[in-house]
Amino acid sequence: MVSEKLDRVIKAVENGAVVVTVNKRLARYLSVRFEAAMVSSERAAWATPVIMPMLSWARSLLEDSWQEGRAVLITEARSSALWKKIIEEDRVIARHKVLISEGAWQAAASAYGLMKEYCAEDLGDEIYLGAEAMAFKRWSREYDKALKRLGFMDYGELVGVVCKAVASGEVALPGKVVFAGFDEVTPQRAAFIRALQQAGTEVDHWPSEPRLALDEEAILPEDAKERIECKNFRSTTQEVRAAARWIREVSASDKEGRVRVGVIVPELAGYRDIILREFRAELSPASVLPWEDIQDVFNISLGSALVAEPLVRGALDILAIGVWPEDISKMGGILLSPFLRATEEEGLALAALDGEFKRRKFLKIGLRDIRGAAAARDNESLKGVVGRLDRWIKDLEGAHKQALPAFWAERFSGLLTALGWYGGGNSLTSREYQTLESWRSLLAEFAGLGDITGLISRQDAVARLRAMAAEKIFQIETVTDSCGAVSEGCGAVSDGQEMSVEVLGILEASGQDFDHIWLMGAHDGALPGPAAPNPFIPVELQRRLGMPRATPEKMLGFAAVSLKRIFESARNFVVSYPLEIEGKEVGLSPLLKGVGKAEEGLAPSQTGCRSSSLKADTHAAFALEDMPLDEKIPLSNLEAAGLRGGTSVIKDQSECPFRAFAKYRLGARAVTLPEDGLDSAERGTIVHEALEHFWKEVGGSLRLRELKDQGELGASIGAAVGRALKGYYAKRLPKRLIDMEGERVEALVAEWLEIELKRTPFTVVQTERGEKVTIGGLSITARPDRLDELENGAKVVIDYKTGNCTKNGWLPDKLTEPQMLLYGIGSDFDAIAFASLKLPKTKFVGISKDDGMLPGVKSLENENRWREQIEGVRNWDDLMERWREALEQVASDFVAGSSSVAPSSQDACKYCELPILCRIFEAGVFDSDGSEVGQ
Known about the structure:
36 helices, P-loop_NTPase, PDDEXK-like_dom_sf, DNA_repair_protein_predicted, PD-(D/E)XK endonuclease-like domain-containing protein
């Protein structure tokens, strides 16, 4: 059936017929099939077939019948710019301050095209028109005037002009024209067909005559239940992943040469990203690696916005940089762009520069800041960067002038070339090369807009260029790849066998045939889809003329005709749908009820078909392969001498040996974006410093009580907080922000001192004073926030905490809070406690040798539940000894080079900044949120 259908159109082309298609994809498909037929029939040569979309053929006819003074076709870019300008300058909208959405011009342009295609001369009597229709009528009138003034015609007028040329005999016509893939004949198309027939040209339709509607019973083939397999899945991801593995099974089972598979998706825009991700992972596993330039073994008909391509996004980000400082995240993206570095060494130097700006908490930086920092570094790799930055800064000197788009296009191109934007020390991949060509084409289109935009600023030029890139669809051109790339895993593909996989929307599938089809997302919300009439044309007019998407009945008819065509395009089918879309339950399309009850599609992992994705292979290897551990690398004397981190070394080693090794021996640090204002760490530091200043002045409970009784406590708190904030006023922060933080800290400290007033008499012996401690061969500095001495000589170690705190971090087997314990290595203490400075309730959290040493803190003897977690501890001396042993062991492990990825709990991973380095989540122990797998 399929071959006979193709034979008919191929023979027509052989006999000189012109084939006019519904879209470019069908034209390309028929051209390929025609050439294949000529090759298989051993033809030595043949005439180039005329197979093209209808508007392309109409344009060629117009060019053949060129007349002096006839208007030329307006380009899409010019048309878009003209519609935008007309709407922006609409005085009625400006007078009434109406808010117009960004996409209004697109809907208006679409309405204009529909009016032309359906031969609608007028919207109707103005008395019956709404505000939208009146606005569109006004805009259309201005658009027509502008076209006439500029000497252009819109594409919507093209067919009408060609019809007149055909009728007057100005055009040389073929003997036969085949209209391919059209499911509907619009009034304009019908007029074109009549003009051709009246001129003596035979007109045929392929693969069949257009059908406006069908009975639901006529949609499915008679043997639907035998030919069509219906499945449902719990999610769209499971559905897509199952389809990808099905493609591999099909390719392995079909041994008769070339296999052609169609994946047809009614709502392709919603599925596109999932399909790209899952199909690439399963069908081209190596393509997910950033250094591999591997073409997809499938073609997807729906492209993406050109602005989404990294090369173009990078160019626009560069052009958007002005003379003033920009947000650090934006400038960081420029510094780290792979399209700007001339060498790998230069890229590393720029990354280091970016990290320095972020660590110094710059919120905004400018080109001059970067240039100065790069020049100040004695780094050969940055000399080229300094020169390019000088060129960039100079280019911005004329940024405020007004000029035509052609001037800005040349200026932008020159700057990007000077900066080495697409050189980057790397050769371009196939996708990047095609992106570059599309960018150059876009720049040329932009340069030609001067007669519409007039003089514009640099900022406006960049904004327009970005908008054009967002509107321009980029579709990478691929060649059919051999199936070797999808052969591993479930079912091997025989050598030399080729497979073509096409992922299409319903419209794009028109006229094409396949060996196998998977109809994906065939749920009741997509087939038929919802009506979406154009907002600028009265709905009644759209209904009467039968415009697309105008009514539910129109959508039902379109879905029925499309499904009938699809089921005539292959012998073997799978129909699938998810059980849920965005939290809403959906069912099988009512148009497909004749296929029988849907089977529950198993998750791909349950089908017995092994995944071929690199991720699955990695996890399988982790579970099955036993790799020997590397030998430990002990801490050298040189490393020990330069070791930084203090008690944090012990904390990190206890929580995860790998983290301690990576941070303190490899120097690995995450670079985080600075926050606007004060971050949590800075706020905690301010509280610490305020209390340090306060107790240095007050000295103990006696003076604290005096200040309280004399009413001077508030002033002392204010003075201490003021000293803590002194350095922050010098930073690039608003004064009011620092003042507000001061008010917050004063209130917090005042509340905390009410707790201190409840204590037995004490003296503050030291605050924030470091003391060298040697343990397990490791010499570090212990620096408790505060050491108090009670009247009886007992010593209390206190650590301020503005976040969550618990004494479970002192359990010898889980030493996650070793700071205060390390102080006890050199000198004993009688109580340790966190001063929990967290609202709504501040309190002491700790453990003591005897009761009554701190408010709310129990003695070890009375902390039964906590003490029972420590085996063999009966009294305070036992606890001190166990702490020493635990600290000694942790320190010895670090010195010995213990570096296993062995987090003490999921909390150790939840806030860790290095999971990408240890790859803990790929091991399947914890989920990416830090929770244990299976919980």
